């Protein structure tokens, strides 16, 4: 039998639960971060999602560190899932990636090696991703930057041939060359072009033309695109509202900008997750923002849409 005190406390709990849940959503609802690198101290990953009000994050994990990603996901139920990467220039990579997917990896990524995006190593990975039925998340960097000082998955201009040749592969495009090519006048002279965007860029067209291409909104690259021409990007987000997914690729310690050394004045000392979520929220309607911060990613990865 329920006594009066129990009844009151149960009723109070029931009535406050939705309110509390709502209040705890700083971004108006749950957030999936599809681009958080597994850190040497995994608890720092947890501090980052707590600090930036992210509900769940995809840990980008090297094949050698799968145990650590699994342990972190186990310690914080419902907060982490993981992708896996391995050195694709080595023949054993296919076996390592296949095993990791069988052990629970939900995708291949991020794949960032000094190869061409239409070279034999990547073609092998596109076929593998289709065979394993997981997406492949690719870093496109045609312009060498201070960090890394190399070309990664070069030859972006020719990438549409891969989208055509591998229709069963789900591609998640990321990094500077993908986001710079939102503008049709990209000159490949800098990783982060500034100024107004000229319509008709490759990334914009390919997102429209190829159902197997998705966009990863992480890092300075997407944040730069959002900020260089907010008016154009309002339409871009609306156009591709079912194809874009929030991610951070942030290295700050606490989800509040602590220790952030990104050289861009736009991001220095700030949390990229927070800056990009705020930028998307500023220029998109709530229903579009909801898709980008949560629905598109959970759907693509087969995660429950309810928290
Ligand atoms: Zn990257
Ligand atoms: Zn951060």
Layout of strands and helices, then pairs:
Layout: H1 4-24, E1 32-37, H2 42-51, E2 56-62, H3 66-75, E3 80-85, H4 93-102, E4 108-111, H5 120-132, E5 136-139, H6 160-165, E6 171-174, H7 176-180, H8 202-209, E7 213-216, H9 219-228, H10 230-239, E8 244-245, H11 272-283, H12 286-301
Parallel strand pairs: 1-2, 2-3, 4-5, 5-6, 6-7, 7-8
Helix pairs in contact: 9-11
Bound molecules: zinc ion (ZN) (2 copies).
Give an overview in words:
- With 307 residues, this protein is of the alpha/beta class.
- It has two domains: 29 residues, no CATH class; 271 residues, TIM Barrel, CATH 3.20.20.
- It is built from twelve helices and eight strands.
- A five-stranded parallel beta sheet has the order 4-5-6-7-8. Strands 1-2-3 form a three-stranded parallel beta sheet.
- Helix 9 runs parallel beside helix 11.
- The longest helix has 21 residues.
- It is globular and about 45 Å long.
- The N terminus is likely disordered.
């Amino acid at each position: 039998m329920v006594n009066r005190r129990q009844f009151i406390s149960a009723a109070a709990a029931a009535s406050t639960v939705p309110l509390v849940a709502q209040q705890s959503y700083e971004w108006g609802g749950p957030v999936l971060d599809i681009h958080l690198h597994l850190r040497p101290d995994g608890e720092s990953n947890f501090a980052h999602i707590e600090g930036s009000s992210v509900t769940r994050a995809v840990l980008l994990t090297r094949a050698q560190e799968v145990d650590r990603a699994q342990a972190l996901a186990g310690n914080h139920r419902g907060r982490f899932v993981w992708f896996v990467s391995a050195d694709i220039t080595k023949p054993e990579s296919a076996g390592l990636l296949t095993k990791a997917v069988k052990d629970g990896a939900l995708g291949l990524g991020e794949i960032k090696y000094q190869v061409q995006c239409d070279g034999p190593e990547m073609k092998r990975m596109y076929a593998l991703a289709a065979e394993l039925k997981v997406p492949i998340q690719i870093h496109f960097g045609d312009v060498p930057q201070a960090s890394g000082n190399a070309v990664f998955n070069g030859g972006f201009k020719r990438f549409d041939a891969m989208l055509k040749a591998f229709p069963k592969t789900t591609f998640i495009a990321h990094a500077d060359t993908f986001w710079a090519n939102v503008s049709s006048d990209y000159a490949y002279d800098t990783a982060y072009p500034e100024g107004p965007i000229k319509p008709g860029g490759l990334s914009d067209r390919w997102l429209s033309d190829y159902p197997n291409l998705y966009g990863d909104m992480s890092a300075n690259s997407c944040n730069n695109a959002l900020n260089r021409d907010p008016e154009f990007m309002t339409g871009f987000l609306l156009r591709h509202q079912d194809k874009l997914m929030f991610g951070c690729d942030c290295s700050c310690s606490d989800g509040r900008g602590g220790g952030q050394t990104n050289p861009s004045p736009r991001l220095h000392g700030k949390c990229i997750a927070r800056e990009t979520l705020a930028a998307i929220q500023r220029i998109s309607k709530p229903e579009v923002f909801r898709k980008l911060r949560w629905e598109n990613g959970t759907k693509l990865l087969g995660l429950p849409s309810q928290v």
